[in-house]
Amino acid sequence: MNRWIFITLLTLFCFRLNSFCQDTKPIPKGSILVPLCVYQGDTIPCVQLPTVYVFKPLVFKSNKEREAYYRMVRNVKKVYPISREINQIIIETYEYLQTLPNDKARQRHIKAVEKGLKEQYTPRMKKLTFAQGKLLIKLVDRNSHQTSFELVKAFMGPFKAGFYQTFAALFGASLKKEYDPTGEDQLAERIIVLLESGQL
């Protein structure tokens, strides 16, 4: 008896499910499905639009200025991803160093990281122009909120920081250079904002 009740209920359930599936209307061709949200009791489409940045149009006084701008765009596109990679390595290295038991283990890890960075980045750094190298130093400061000099000093000590600063100075650069988004780096900041939003 129980078996027949179970079969009857199962048949009714399947029939209702089949009816429900047939009652749903097919999605018209060309329709776009969007998420829904409830706002003040109404169910409305909920679409998150990307932020669009609008800047005052650039006016170039000469072809030389126009070429300098597009050179800056090219340089930012080349070195900005590297500066982000470096920032990620800094964060990961710092977090990992906190898990190590003593200074000896930390120094060993820092040496291993330094060796790995040299192997990975030396070929890429050799391909950078002088202007791109100077821009990279500034972008590291922008992303990490610390100058390259401060980062080297924190991880490798003041002696190595001084050595690298002297080496950079020989080529007319400085690891102590800070990024100034409202001053001399205003154009670079504009390019980065447009680049990050997908507008460039």
Nutshell version of this structure?
This protein is mainly alpha-helical and 200 residues long. It is 66% helix and 4% strand. The protein starts with a helix and ends with a helix.
How helical, in percent, are the residues? 55-70%
Strand order of the largest sheet: 1-2
Low-confidence stretches: none
Main beta sheet strand tally, sense and closure: 2 strands, antiparallel
Beta strands, count: 2
Order of helices and strands: HEEHHHHHH
SS content category:
mainly alpha
Tell me the β content: under 5%
Question: What's the shape?
Answer: extended
Number of helices: 7
The averaged pLDDT comes out at: 80
First and last CA, distance: 73 Å
Radius of gyration (Å): 29 Å
SSE blueprint:
Blueprint: H1 2-23, E1 36-39, E2 42-45, H2 63-99, H3 103-126, H4 130-144, H5 148-156, H6 158-170, H7 186-196
Antiparallel strand pairs: 1-2
Helix pairs in contact: 2-4, 2-7, 5-6
Could you characterize the architecture of this molecule?
Helix 5 packs antiparallel against helix 6. The model has no long low-confidence stretch (mean pLDDT 80). A two-stranded antiparallel ribbon has the order 1-2. Strand 1 and strand 2 form a beta hairpin. The chain has a domain of 134 residues. It has 200 residues and is mainly alpha-helical. It has seven helices and two strands. The longest helix is centred in the middle third of the chain and has 37 residues.
